Every structure is written in structure tokens, then in C-alpha cells.
Amino acid sequence: MKLKKIGSKYGGWKIPTDALNEGAICYCFGAGEDISFDLELVEKHNCRVFVFDPTPRSILHIDQLKDHLANGKPMKINDQENHFYDISSEKLSSLFSFAPYGIYTRNELVKFFVPSDPSHVSHSITNLQQTDGYFLAECKTLLKIMSELDHDHIDLIKLDVEGVEHDVIENLMECNIYPRVLCVEFHHTKEVLAWETTLPLIRKLRKYGYALAHNDHYNFTFVLRIETPEASDFLKMCQLSWWAFRHSLRNKVA
Domain 4-227 class? Predict the structure, then answer.
């Protein structure tokens, strides 16, 4: 399995591109102001990409991109100097779709809490940064989204959903939805929570046939029934670290 970095340094992911055929269906949840990964799937790999994000600045970012392309102007990625989106207006209109709603375990209006730093774009259902301000946005389950788009499968799912990734993945497995590639950014409020929630979920994914193909900090790429030695070693390291943490905790309590 050969992994390739798709997208910018900030918004990119390492994935096995040979797992995605032309016309592959890709759902990308969480756009922010960097959709370089999503657009490269369209431009370089001819995938059908569906992006979802109810955040106001993300919606504005998509509108600005469409306006720039319509006027033949390059658009910066995440407002970075000398980094521009590489996408044709033809492919954007034929293979790219954007919807201003989020993913959740229920179909309902949900509070999205603001970040503590107003310059940041990401809002969270789980209120990761313990703020008071929020906006209400529509959320849908993955099954409802697939039904509305008339899809019977998904080849790739990217989850950058600020804290609800654990619930969404559990719901995904309960509904027997198994994309070939699953890209997840895990979010945590403290390091203890990271070990307590993420490692059991990784083990569960492995039981369902997923292998950890790559990780970069809290960004994890899982692939059905494939595992690289590098990723396997990383998971063993995490398991040993978790065991050491639990052992030290028991000693403190004793």
C-alpha cells in the first residue's frame, strides 16, 4: 500500500490513493477555510466529493472560491501567501458539492459553540473550549444524508467535526456503513480523555476490519483490511503508554 499526502500542509491527509477509483464517492465533514484535500480529490483523482459544514465562515469560504473561479482569479488556501487552490471551474461544478449542514447521530437543530479565539473558524457541538456563544444549525445522520443523495456506499469519509467523531463513528458501525478509507481528527479537552476514548475506538475499528494506515498527531487514516508496519508500531506504542498511565494511576490511588 502506497500512501500519498493529499492537500496542503495544514489541511492535508495521507491516504492510499489506489483505494479510490475514478468516480469514487467521498464525504468530507468539516471544511473550515482549507478544502485543499477535498479539491485535490476532485482535480487530481476525479472523485465525486461532497463537503458538509454549517459554519458561517466555511460557507463564505466556499462562496468566495466559486466567485474567484467564475472571475478567473486564484484563491488563497486558508489565506496563506503563495498557496492557492488548484481546481478548474468545470470540475468544481461537475464533481464537487457543498451542503451547509453538519453530521450528527440525530436529525435535528444543534448548538454549535464558538471558539474561544474569535480568529479561529471551527465551532463545536461538544463545546470543546467551554464558551457561551453558539449558533443553531441543522444536522443529519449519515444514513439520512446517503438517502437524500441516493448513495448506497461511500468510498472515503473525512471527519473533522470538533469532538463528535466518536459518536459519529459508533453510529457508522451500528448502521453497517464501511468506507474504504476513513480519515479522522480526534479532538480532546485533556490528555487523559484522549487515551480513555480514542484507543478503545481504534481497537473497535480494527475488529470491524479497519487497519491504521497512518497517523499525524491526532489525524488518523484507517483503511479496510490493510495495515502498515509504521502504523502498527504506533498503535503498540499507544497501548503501552495507556497501560503505563493506568498503572501509575493505580499506584497513586493505592
Answer: alpha beta
pLDDT-derived band at 252 (thresholds 50, 70, 90) equals: very low
Domain boundaries, the chain: 4-227
Phi, psi for 217 (deg, rounded to 5): 60, -115
Alpha helices in 150-187 (DSSP H): 165-174
Can you tell me the distance from the alpha carbon of 136 to that of 100, in angstroms, rounded to the nearest whole number?
Answer: 12
Cβ(14)–Cβ(222) below 8 Å: no
pLDDT of residue 232: 52
In this structure, the number of other CB atoms found within 10 A of the CB of residue 203 comes to 11
Show Cβ contacts of residue 220 under 8 Å, excluding neighbours closer than 6 positions.
Answer: 183, 184, 185, 186, 202, 212, 214
Mean pLDDT of the chain: 86
Q: What is the number of alpha carbons within 13 Å of residue 184 lying toward its C-beta?
A: 26
> Sheet holding 134-140: strands in order across?
102-103, 134-140, 108-113
pLDDT single digits (tens) 112-153: 999 888 888 888 888 878 899 999 999 999 999 999 999 999
CA–CA gap between residue 33 and residue 11 (Å, rounded): 9
For 106, 114, 159, 170, 176, the CA distances from 167, given in Å and listed in that order, are 10, 20, 11, 5, 14
**Nearest one of 241, 178, 228 to 204, comparing CA atoms:** 178
Give pLDDT tens digits for 52-96.
Answer: 999 999 999 999 999 999 998 989 887 677 788 988 889 999 999
